[in-house]
Amino acid sequence: MSYFLRRGRLFAALAASSSALVLAACGGGEEEQQTSSGEAPAEDVGLVNEGQLTTCTHLPYKPFQFEQDGKIVGFDVDLVDLVAKELGVRQEIVDTPFEGIQSGEDLNARKCDIAAAAMTITPERAEKIAFSDPYFDANQALLVKKDSNIKTLDDLEGKTLGVQSGTTGKLYAEENAEPKGVKLKDYEDVALELSSVKSGQVDAGINDVPVLLDYAKDNPELEVTQQFETGEQYGFGMKKGTSEKLATVVNRVLSEAKQDGTYDRLYEKWFGVKPKSSS
């Protein structure tokens, strides 16, 4: 998504004041791993905490990051585990409101070393965040009940569309649905948005394609209808101006994972299919 403000949440007072929940990522025990290519020790890349790569994310955003059997797992988690392994440290995950992630505030405050939250690279965000190379292509789509007869935005005239605050999906809806007479209802959390579609509180929801497909798979009474080509690409975020060494490692790990088949294997693990292209 080169022109949308993607996946964020407006900072609500409650979210801003809530304490961050720190959870260990799946794949622990990597702290004993030696770096595979002679990379400098972890402290030389300026990690917030010695011996660990601290990751900011906002849960849940299945299948990118979510809790399962007491562990945080997902596609993003597995990719950042590769970076932690390269550095010879373990990954530690901080669950925190997305507004602080996408604004760069958490990175600037040294709450974490890297942000992995299915976050789209945008020019606005790139002014505040140092992004990695893109690691995932994503677009937007509609989620509806199968018996709703809603197939496109045009079918939502006079109805209510759920949107996630601060996201490119919301911006797309503001630009393309509101002019058609569609009422928008904001949700800070994607889980609340999607459950509202399921319960009938809203007539449809708009969000990232892979998240909606995963939710529809688990809720067969729902379906994904119209998809919107927005050209969105996710990137990992780092503190702007002081993370050049870490960004170099991240980009190298992503490149090597795509070349040696690791990226394809992880993609298929979480999305059920191989990527069209991992180059």
UniProtKB/TrEMBL annotation:
<dbReference type="InterPro" id="IPR001320">
    <property type="entry name" value="Iontro_rcpt_C"/>
</dbReference>
<feature type="signal peptide">
    <location>
        <begin position="1"/>
        <end position="24"/>
    </location>
</feature>
<dbReference type="InterPro" id="IPR018313">
    <property type="entry name" value="SBP_3_CS"/>
</dbReference>
<dbReference type="InterPro" id="IPR001638">
    <property type="entry name" value="Solute-binding_3/MltF_N"/>
</dbReference>
<keyword id="KW-0732">Signal</keyword>
<feature type="domain" description="Ionotropic glutamate receptor C-terminal">
    <location>
        <begin position="52"/>
        <end position="273"/>
    </location>
</feature>
<comment type="similarity">
    <text>Belongs to the bacterial solute-binding protein 3 family.</text>
</comment>
<feature type="domain" description="Solute-binding protein family 3/N-terminal">
    <location>
        <begin position="52"/>
        <end position="274"/>
    </location>
</feature>
<protein>
    <submittedName>
        <fullName>ABC transporter, substrate-binding protein (Cluster 3, basic aa/glutamine/opines)</fullName>
    </submittedName>
</protein>
<dbReference type="Pfam" id="PF00497">
    <property type="entry name" value="SBP_bac_3"/>
</dbReference>
<dbReference type="GO" id="GO:0030313">
    <property type="term" value="C:cell envelope"/>
</dbReference>
<dbReference type="GO" id="GO:0015276">
    <property type="term" value="F:ligand-gated monoatomic ion channel activity"/>
</dbReference>
<dbReference type="GO" id="GO:0016020">
    <property type="term" value="C:membrane"/>
</dbReference>
